User: Fold these one by one.
Assistant:
Number 1:
Amino acid sequence: MSINEIVLQCRETNDYARLVEAIPYARTIGMGCIKAGEEVIFTLPAIKSNIGNPTLPAIHGGVLGGFIEQSAQLHLLMVMETPTYPKVVDLSIDYLSAGLFRDTFAECRVLRMGRRIANVAVTLWQAKKEEPIATARAHLLLS
Amino acid sequence: MTEDEKPQLPFTLEEGLKMFLHGVRHSMELGMALEEITPQGLVVRLPYSDKIIGNPDTGVIHGGAITSLMDQACGLAVAQAMAPDFDITPTIDLRIDYMRPAEPGKDVFAYVESYRKTRSVVFTRGIAYQDNRDEPIAHCVANYMRMGLSKVPWTPTKTVGERQ
């Protein structure tokens, strides 16, 4: 089954676990997603293979970057009119504090959905949403 | 004291950078390796593997794996710029532009350099490429903060952190 077919199926059932399961990289970093009505929160459980700094320990900055990209892609797939797998054009991450070895959560906001390009803001937090550990913005190509 | 016993760094820059890299679990998980050290910077390899595939239909690797590669490589370039001193240098920010999708089945290389070092910040930039440095698949700039926690030279017992 192709990615687009899986997306259509997930949209019908409102259950995106299958899609996350179908993407090897998302499985590698252990991502998941929680749907609460119309809201969606992406999850990155604390797993050892995601550790960057071994002394703190802290999650690898690149893993947080990958988590952000994958979250933005999945979020758009959920809200686009006709879903095609979006491609990341660029990404800018501000690391606000150490991503400690804890579960991490992400929430996306689509600031602009054009015909070809979407601008998505992503916030990452661990303990409290009001205390983000990173913020990012990404542009994704929709067609 | 013979010539061999003179006090000096207990290992070369290359050995130090490899120790740094080998301590970073996720980078090891993805199989990254230090390829080359140049006067200005260095090259890190990210081997192609099934676990970093982003699109299972095409086999194209996920941008996240390239972000990890660039953050790791730029972190190493910071360590290179700081040597023989050592400091904890978390990433302040990272920006990446994807010029074209990576070709499936091929390794990705990061060619990065630190181009400015101040008392508080180290500035780095680099590209990711596959066959040819003139045809990059991604551009990256990343800045790192100098925590000023340690001024001592690297020692073999010290665990060198990547970020934060």
Note: Chain B touches chain A through 40 residues (CB under 8 Å).
Number 2:
Amino acid sequence: MRSLLTAAGSAVVMCASLAASPLFAQTAPQTITVTSPTLVAGQTMPKQHTPDGRNDSPALSWSNVPAGTKEFIVICEDPEAGNPPPFVHWVIYKIPGSAKGLPEALPIDTATPMPAGLEGAVQGLNGFRRPVYRGPAPPPGNPHPYHFVVYALDTALAAPKAGVPAMGRAELLEAMKGHVLGQGELVAMYGRNRTQ
Amino acid sequence: MDAPKIISRRALLRGVGVAGAAAVAAPAGLLVSTSDAGAAPAAAQTSAGAAAGRQVYQHLTASEAELLEAMVDRLIPADALGPGAKDAGVLTYIDRALGSALASSRAAYTAGLAALDRYASASRGQGFLALNARDRDSVLMDVESGTVTPGIFTGNSTQFFSMVLGHTRQGMFGDPFYGGNKDFIGWDLLRYPGVRTTVTAADQKSLEADQLKPNHRSAYDNEMFVKATARNDAHDQDHNGDGHGH
């Protein structure tokens, strides 16, 4: 899959064959175009989005959104890590249907409010069991692919109850079943040496 | 990769198993809360502290103490629930223990704190003390999860994080006799009513109604506990250069 993505080399990857991958637990058509000012499909992610830099979440934009979209979900995952894969780096849901994307560097704690236009959005639990973005940190070796997947939903998901952790990827995939109008993704790469 | 613990003030309170603490409203945050994320970098704060006269520690160097204080201040920060680890004298606890019960951890502190600062500089462009609360938390999350840039920490950064967190909890919630839990800050945070060798029926009733006032007494205020001797012995041994953990 890595070579396929690298070979794509375009700004946007919308590969129909990926729809059958375990990454896409939903079967809705990949109609959404996902772009970023700092991420290029198939190319190495800048360090600012990894623990080798500030580890800030990247800005994302989306277009070709299905009519009737009530909310968006964004999940970032690495299908080449995790036990079982994928390892989840970021989950954010209840993104208002009016949103055109996400700005860079979303809050890393629940006390800080979401930026304007993203009111109500909730960061879910990642693979570290934290409700934040934590970027790529693959073991030294070949670069891993990081899938930033955007889902458009025809419904509004429930907000987490007070004192209850936000949902993680598995719960979200279950909650969105039958509600995905469309999806799209941007896949970027990142690798590490033994010493950076 | 194992998922590290989420450290929220709520979880931290649960971890020490004190009834009633869970009723305290708490932000489910990162290392606890970052409500002061916009606070001025601590470099300015420490300058003011230095002018007022910095505390001298027995075992930690001045730069180690400064880094460690900044770290524990993010692990249990002061917030709406009360003072944090810095105010509770956690550093005094750790410093004192590094000369006795925790002496075997001394080298890990030296190496870990230096690595923490190197990692902050390499990844965020500034040393740990120059970062604001948000960036300190971001650094500490990466240290906790073991995702720091390879080659900076000797061994696993998670081990260093867990060690400091464990000692911070000890200093925050242990008996004030050991140098931390200053003014019973930790016990008040937990609403722990204090060590009691006898509990009357009236006390029990008050406790069950969550109205028993804390007695603010160290266990060693009771004559039946004589561990003060052990501390003095540890100090003597340390001064003789042959102190060791026990």
Note: Chain A has two helices and eight strands.
